[in-house]
Every structure is written in C-alpha cells, then in structure tokens.
Design goal:
Elements (H helix, E strand, L loop, with lengths): L1 H38 L12 H5 L7 E9 L4 H17 L6 E10 L4 E8 L3 H12 L2 H11 L2 E11 L14 E9 L4 H11 L9 E9 L4 E8 L2 H12 L4 H8 L3 E11 L7
Antiparallel strand pairs: 1-3, 1-4, 2-3, 2-8, 4-6, 5-7, 5-8, 6-7
Helix pairs in contact: 6-8
Length: 277
C-alpha cells in the first residue's frame, strides 16, 4: 500500500511538472510572439551626440535650400508662371543676390493648380539673410509680390538641407516629368532614415532618376523630400519595378516604412524657365 501511495505521489508530481513546463513554454512563446509583433511598431531611439543636421548634411558645401508651395487660383496659373519666370530670370542675372532657382514646376497629379519652387542659397543662412534684406528694399520685387498675391490662394515654405549621400540637383535637359515624394517621419527617426537610405540610394541610380534628397530644418519638422526624374509615367513604373528585382531593396523598404507617419507623391511638370527640364 505504501508503495502504491508513493507511485501515485510521484505520478502527481510528474504531471504537475509537465504542466508547469508546458505553461512556461506557452508563456515564452507568447512573450516571443509579442516581442516580435511589437518590434514592427515600437522604435528604439538611440542616443546621439550631435544634431542630425550635422551628421546627415553635406559638410563640404554650405548650401541651404528653400522649397515653396504656392496654391494658385485656377484662372491665374498661366499669368502666375509668366510673372514668376520673369522675376527668377532677373534674380539670376543680378550677382548681388546670392540665390538661384534649382527648379520650378506645376503639379500634374496631386494638389491641382499648385506651383513648386526649389531655391538654393550658396553660403547657408548668411546668404539667405542677405538676400531677404536686399529684397525688402527692392521696389521692383515688392511690386511683384503685390501682383503675385492677387493670384494666390495660399502659400507655405520650408528651409531644407541636402542629404550627404544624394546627388546635388543640377540642371538637366528634358523633357522629363518629376516626382516629389514627401515623407513625414516620426520624431527621433531621421538618423535611422538617413543611415538606411545611404545604403539604399545605390539601388535607384540605374536610370539617372535620382535628382536630390532633402530634410527640413525650419517649417514642418522631420520632413524628407526625395526628388526623382523620369521620361514618362511608364518609365517611372518600369524604373520603380526594377528596384524590387535587386537584392537588398526590399530590406530597405522593410526597415524604413515603420519610420513614416504619412507620405505624399506629386507628379510635376517643369515650367519653361526651370533649370530642371
């Protein structure tokens, strides 16, 4: 009898032990699953010892960029383009103004009746300040602003720096269409975005489509703009599809998508006066 009782006790102990092991295994599995699932959405921000503008921008140049978005009254778009082209030409010819237009476009797909301008200030913030001070006392420019204001519904701008690993936007011949892809990132993720794209940009050079890459400094923050050029919408589709056939591109997408809060794509047509055609 004593032996039978001992066997029953041993059996219960073994059964309890197995149950505990199974529960522990389930707990570990669930914890691992939760950890894997959370890793898709929870981003760990590493401490940094310098501003991302110093770590990601081009140190060998001191150019500052300004991007302008002008929403134009539909009936005024042609008159607006003509007026803007005239003023841009005069600023280019006047050596006293340390600024130059990089490109001017009208949005084709995206915000309708919208003009987009990208300016470069060689010399950084001092060049921007010098230019603004001179324009404030330029009677011809003040008249232009007054006339332009009659044509606009709204306007906004941002000051940008260019990523060190992107091509510098230089004049190019057309005809081309341009795509401006705008990414609003989660705060604290700009460095990771830059590190990922420093490797990924090599996958997007085969058709000379990469024009420029920028990140905001003043205006809406944690905003990235990628500017691409294509011969046509069909060329855009083929070029983008070819990137997916290259080993490593999918990894870039996998790791950068969780960094994005929202994104927008504009297809743009260059104006007649734009250096980027």
């Amino acid at each position: 009898m004593a032996k039978a009782g001992s066997l029953r006790t041993t059996g219960r102990a073994l059964h309890t032990s197995v149950r505990l092991q199974r529960a522990a295994a389930r707990g570990f599995s669930e914890s691992s699953d939760r950890g894997w699932f959370r890793s898709l959405f929870v981003h760990k921000v590493e401490a940094r010892k310098d501003a991302h503008s110093n770590l990601l921008s081009k140190r060998e140049t001191s150019s500052l960029y300004k991007i302008q978005f002008h929403d134009v009254k539909p009936e005024c778009l042609d008159a607006y383009n003509s007026l803007e082209a005239e003023v841009q030409k005069k600023l280019h010819q006047d050596q006293d103004f340390p600024c130059e237009v990089v490109g001017s476009w009208n949005t084709w797909y995206g915000e309708q009746d919208q003009a987009v301008h990208l300016w470069r200030y060689r010399g950084g913030y001092p060049a921007l300040t010098e230019c603004l001070q001179k324009l404030r006392v330029n009677k011809e420019y003040l008249e232009f602003r007054k006339e332009r204001s009659k044509m606009l519904i709204s306007r906004r701008n941002q000051l940008l720096l260019e990523f060190s690993f992107w091509n510098e936007p230089l004049p190019r011949r057309g005809p081309n269409i341009y795509e401006l892809r705008t990414y609003n990132l989660k705060p604290g993720t700009m460095l990771e975005w830059g590190n990922r794209w420093a490797r990924a940009i090599k996958y997007r050079q085969s058709n000379n489509e990469a024009v420029g890459g920028f990140f905001s400094q003043i205006g809406d923050l944690y905003v990235v703009h990628h500017l691409w050029a294509y011969e046509s919408l069909q060329s855009r589709e083929e070029t983008r599809n070819s990137a997916w056939r290259k080993e490593g591109w999918d990894v870039n997408v996998y790791y950068t998508v969780p960094l994005i809060r929202s994104m927008e794509s504009r297809i743009m047509i260059p104006t007649e006066s734009s250096p980027l055609q």
